[in-house]
Design brief:
With about 280 residues, this protein is of the alpha+beta class. The chain is about 30% helix and about 30% strand. A hairpin with a 5-residue loop joins strand 7 and strand 8 (about 125-135). Mean pLDDT is about 85; it is low at about 30-40.
Length: about 280
């Protein structure tokens, strides 16, 4: 509905994924970094312009999604002053089903509608925006910027995944055969023993017979799709980045802090040889 007296403009991202949602929660909860976490939010602000000759009291903005993954939301607006613009940046929190986002295998297009009602529940203006729900392995960079690439890639490291745990068990057997000892993380206070633990993990991954394979096909043009460790182990194929994330997952599972290095068209994994160093960098 178009009403010449009112206008709605929303700052809506073109996509949302399980990874971007996790990054938003991570930055808010751990660092209370609401400015940067907002970069991962699919809705950053809503501007409502009242061009009528009178103020509008007790109006309601209804935000609806034609997809069950995201719940609708109502925002009460006490006053829309005439000839003024109201910008809403708070209360833009939505209940998003993480399991539903996690289970997506292909991109899904949904519509987001913004409808403004007066206190008599009469529709004043509405507008619809498209939003893509991306599959888990699709890396969507906020604002097409690589500024938060490290935060997003870290969400692919899954140390508690069942397949990762199974692979860590295989590495444990190798470590015992080589050193007659088990994974101790940093408890031995010996960087050389950390290297021996990493060597056992490398051997376990090598024994999986994983072959190099280009990134999975994607209709999105934001960033390459990244395979989760479990999918690398299931299919026995992956890119250098996929393998680096797989190794990082196992390394973290055994109590060692991994590091993923990104170069031009290449990636590889490393680890801190002493505990506490990673927290100081």
């Amino acid at each position: 509905m178009n009403n010449e007296k009112f206008n709605i403009t929303a700052n809506v991202s073109d996509s949302i994924s399980y990874i971007s949602r996790q990054c938003e929660i991570y930055l808010c909860d751990k660092y209370h970094d609401f400015t940067n976490s907002n970069c991962f939010s699919f809705l950053r602000s809503v501007r409502i312009q009242n061009m009528s000759s009178s103020d509008v009291l007790d109006s309601t903005l209804k935000i609806e999604f034609d997809a069950p993954e995201i719940k609708d939301s109502l925002i009460h607006i006490s006053c829309l002053d005439k000839d003024k613009i109201v910008e809403i940046t708070n209360n833009l929190n939505f209940k998003i089903d993480p399991a539903a986002l996690y289970s997506l295998t292909e991109a899904k297009l949904v519509n987001v509608s913004f409808s403004l009602f007066n206190k008599d529940n009469e529709l004043l203006v509405s507008r619809v925006y498209p939003l893509h729900l991306l599959p888990l392995e699709q890396l969507s960079l906020p604002n097409k910027s690589a500024s938060f690439l490290s935060e997003m890639l870290s969400c692919f490291v899954t140390p508690n995944d069942d397949y990762v745990i199974e692979l860590a068990g295989k590495a444990t057997k190798i470590l015992y055969e080589d050193e007659k000892n088990s994974f101790l993380g940093y408890q031995a206070n010996d960087p050389n023993y950390v290297v021996k633990q990493l060597n056992a993990i490398y051997k376990a991954v090598r024994n999986e017979g994983i072959a190099y394979m280009t990134p999975p096909a994607s209709f999105e043009k934001i960033f390459q799709r990244v395979r989760l460790p479990q999918n690398v182990l299931k299919t026995k194929q992956g890119t250098c980045l996929d393998l680096a994330i797989l190794m990082a997952s196992v390394i973290e599972h055994v109590g060692i802090h991994p590091v993923v290095f990104l170069l031009n068209k290449h990636a590889f994994v490393g680890a801190w040889l002493e505990d506490g160093l990673s927290a100081n960098t």
